[in-house]
Amino acid sequence: MKFAYLIVIILFCQGLYIILTQSNLIKVVMGFNIAESALIILLVLLGYREGGTAPILDGDYTIVVDPIPQALALTAIVIGASMTALMLALIIKLHKRYGTVDINEIRRLRG
Predict the structure, then answer these.
(1) Domains plus CATH for the chain?
(2) How far apart are CA 49 and CA 61, in angstroms?
């Protein structure tokens, strides 16, 4: 189980590193998606219970998996897809206007 948390930390740090170091806007969007995926995995891990079953309470009240983090993860997936579409639409507009997706070149062309 600790290995899964280590994977989440590595994925989030990798996404953050990409966001902070890349000047290509497409790569920055990919970094956001990697960091978001790490946070979604973290939400699912937080709701996991060893030996748990589906959260359907039919009288047998054994250990169940917490459904709230799963619902939050599903909501985060929808919001993340919307944000990715919006970021890519803005990148397309920037590319049409400036002819590049390099943020340093766009700053230089703006003056």
Answers:
(1) 2-110 (1.10.287.3510)
(2) 14
Q: Which residue has the higher pLDDT, 111 or 9?
A: 9
What gap in Å lies between CA 42 and CA 45, rounded to an integer?
5
Do the Cβ atoms of 27 and 18 come closer than 8 Å?
Answer: yes
Q: Model pTM?
A: 0.86
* Separation CA 110–CA 98 (nearest Å): 9
Alpha-carbon gap, residue 57 to 67, rounded angstroms: 12
- Give the 3-state secondary structure percentages of the chain, helix then strand then coil, rounded to 5: 75, 5, 20
* DSSP letter (8 states) at residue 23: -
CB–CB of 23/49 below 8 Å?
Answer: no
The pair of three-digit structure tokens given for residue 87, joined into one six-digit string = 């970021």
Please state the rounded mean pLDDT for residues 107-111.
Answer: 85
